[in-house]
Amino acid sequence: MNIFVDEDIYIPPDPDKEYQIIPYIKSTNVTILMKWILLYREHPELLTNITKLIKTNLDIINMQCSNSYTALIWASYYGYDIVVRMLLDHPNTNPNL
Predict the structure, then answer these.
(1) Is 23 exposed, middle or buried (0-12, 13-18, 19+ CB in 10 A)?
(2) Over the stretch 36-70, which tens digit does the pLDDT of each residue have?
(3) Is residue 65 part of a domain?
(4) DSSP-based helix, strand, coil % in the chain, nearest 5
């Protein structure tokens, strides 16, 4: 399910837009990192972008959407082990959020 169907995958999502992340969760404040993680299955080439982003934007790793979920939670939920490991290995990641 591509919730960003009408959006360019490289453009950050509108922070005020409510996205239907999964059938029972809607959220605002979705970051570009979260967007790329949510699109990773359909666009595995985004792994390179994710890697570059977390190296250059240290604050984005722990940002939370309106449901208090982080990129790490979404990567874990979808079982993207390589992304989970990348985030957990990053010194700025707070796994307790």
Answers:
(1) exposed
(2) 999 999 999 999 999 999 999 999 999 999 999 99
(3) yes
(4) 40, 5, 50
